[in-house]
Each structure stands twice: as C-alpha cells, then as structure tokens.
Amino acid sequence: MATTRAHEKVLDWVTSQLAAGQLTIGDRLPAERTLAETLGVSRNSLREALRVLEAMGVLQSATGSGHNSGTIITAAPEQAFGMAMGLQLASRQMRPEHIFRTRLLLETAAVSQSDPAQLDVAAINDMLDAMDDPDMPIQGFLRLDAEFHVALSRAAENPLLSTLMGAVSLAISDYTLELSHRLPDWQATARRLQREHRGVLEAMVEGDGAAASERVERHIRGYYRETNAEA
C-alpha cells in the first residue's frame, strides 16, 4: 500500500475541516506540535508539508508573534496553477502561443458574460489612472495590466475563470516583460493599450457583452502580434 506523504495528510485534514465547517478561509492552523500529533507526523515532516502547501497557495505563513503569527488558510489556487504552467513553458511542453489562445478563450468568455453590477469600476479606474503615468516602469505597468484583466474577469461571477486568468498572467509574466522591453516605442504601445482598456471597460459598464468581447479579443491579438513581431 502506498504511504501517504505528510503534505497529503495535511491537505486532506484541511479539506475535511473546511468541508465540515470547522475551519474557514483566513483561519489559522493549530500550533505545530498539536497538528503534528493530530496527524501522526514528525514536526520536520510537518514543516516540509506546510512549505509544499504554501507553494500551492493553500497556506500562508505569517511571521511575528502572538495573534499575528502562525499559518493561515488561504485561497490562492492561481499561484499553483501559474507555477505549473510556468514549468510547462520552461520545459517546452507548452508554448506561449498556447497560453495566448487559452487567454483569448477565457477572457472573451468572461467579459461577454459579465454583470456590470459586479464591476468594481472605481478600483479599476484607479488602476488605469496609475497606468497613465508615463514614468511608470514597464514592469509596474504590466503588473497593473494583469490585475486589470483579472478584475474584469471577476465580473462574470465565475471564480474558476478569474483563477485561471490569474494563473495565466503569472505563468507568462517574465516572458511578457522580456518581449515588452524589446518594443521600439513602449510609450506609444502603452498609450494604445490604455485606450483599448478603457474601451473594453466602457462596453462592460454599458452591459454590451458582445462589444466587450470583440474589443478585448482585438486588444489581446494586437499586443500579441506586436510583441512577437519584435521578438
């Protein structure tokens, strides 16, 4: 019989506790000694298991003392998905064009099915206003760009869609940054992207899913063509 690894024991325990309502997202795990005894694993094995689950986005370690310390249950599956896709890209089992096509499918579906009432318009406009700063480094712009697109996808009220969008952004962040640095006129590109961002948002606010889907597809295809033409 296969031996259950420590991180699987911890994950199974967390899953069962969540399902039973004994734990919720944001709760802290029991003290290390208590949890190790509960699960029948050594404290060293438990620590390694917690590190694995933290990399998977299941847990987050909080440094400090007293109430602010401990290991917190989180919900960040995009971290694990993004890492897995990044490894697939690095090993050439997956190509950037596969990510591009997947992003098209995900995001056009998300914006076409969005509910304008679910858009955090003020927060999204704050992102866009920050991205208007011509002195913002490319890396900062691209980070906010990724957050913008994930924020739009949340309006579809499908957490799997927004999680996958976040994972895709994580997986290709380094690749996108490298290609963007090669563009001959980044400021011109940034201004065009911002016009397109606002056009997509406008269509979504107006509840025109078809126009939003068309605009976001044109936006993604245009940037992909531009960056890959210069690569």
Automatic annotation (TrEMBL):
Pfam families: FCD, GntR
Alphabetical UniProt keywords: DNA-binding, Transcription, Transcription regulation
Transmembrane intervals: none
Domain HTH gntR-type: start-end pairs: 4-76
Leader peptide range in chain numbering: none
SUPFAM superfamilies to which the protein is assigned, alphabetical: GntR ligand-binding domain-like, Winged helix' DNA-binding domain
Top-rank taxon: Bacteria
Gene Ontology molecular-function annotations: DNA binding; DNA-binding transcription factor activity
SMART domains: FCD, HTH_GNTR
Protein's name according to its UniProt entry: HTH-type transcriptional regulator LutR
Naturally occurring in which organism (per UniProt): Corynebacterium endometrii
